[in-house]
Amino acid sequence: MLKFQPEECLLGGFHGGKPNDPSFRELIIRWFEYATFSPVLRMHGDRGPHTPPLGVSGGGLMDSGAPNEVWSYGEEAFEIFKKYIFIRERLRPYITELMMAAHEKGTPPMRPLFYDFPQDREAWNIEDEFMFGPDLLVAPVLYEGARAKRVYLPKGSSWKEVSTGIKHQGGMWIASDAPIEDIPLFLRDGAYLPI
């Protein structure tokens, strides 16, 4: 079973992964969804299978990795990548504010739940969700084949599930649907972001 490692830096990891492998496609889709809500969204890596060298001198002596562009993973993945690229673009003003706060005050754009909810004891135990700025809770899907996620919503705020529009009170666990095209996202206290 593939387990997504969010602490990794580059989408898909640098070495390995084959664009035509269904398991890797699922992994990179989930990774892309996660990375949309991080300071840097970047496709990068050395995919397989490699092509033979193209020449006999200089850079032509090196083999090359398989394609790694957003269209290299099939139509389903491409449509999902496009969805999140457009979300990222619409969030540009919000992300700019987050980066300014990071620069001026040292406020991290991505932070564990306890950063914004220090009085919520359960928030200190959550290791697979994070706040992207003060208004957006992100709950990445970490396991291959998962199409739902158990999500903790910190107390002291109300939360609107982006995919359904359903509002929840904080201080509770919920089951959130997570089809391959959706990462569970929650807006805090009536915040509006163009997601």
Protein model, in words:
Mean pLDDT is 89; it is low at 1-9. The protein has four helices and ten strands. The protein is 25% helix and 20% strand. The protein is elongated, with a radius of gyration of 19 Å. β7 and β8 (167-169) form a beta hairpin. 28% of the residues are buried. It has a domain at 107-188: Golgi alpha-mannosidase II (Immunoglobulin-like), CATH 2.60.40. The longest helix is centred in the middle third of the chain and has 16 residues, at 75-90. α1 (22-36) packs parallel to α2.
Secondary structure elements and pairings:
Blueprint: H1 22-36, E1 47-51, E2 64-66, H2 75-90, H3 92-105, E3 110-111, H4 113-116, E4 130-132, E5 136-138, E6 148-153, E7 158-161, E8 167-169, E9 172-177, E10 185-188
Antiparallel strand pairs: 1-2, 3-4, 4-5, 5-10, 6-9, 7-8, 7-10
Helix pairs in contact: 1-2
In short:
The chain is of the alpha+beta class and 195 residues long.
Keyword list:
disordered N terminus, 25% helix, 20% strand, 195 residues, six-stranded antiparallel β-sheet
For the sheet with most strands, the description reads: 6 strands, antiparallel
Indicate the CATH class of the domain at 107-188: Mainly Beta
CATH fold type of the domain at 107-188: Immunoglobulin-like
- End-to-end C-alpha gap: 31 Å
Query: Number of helical segments?
Result: 4
User: What is the name of the CATH architecture of the domain at 107-188?
Assistant: Sandwich
- The multimeric state of the shown protein is single chain
Number of strands: 10
Strand order of the largest sheet: 3-4-5-10-7-8
Name given to the CATH homologous superfamily of the domain at 107-188: Golgi alpha-mannosidase II
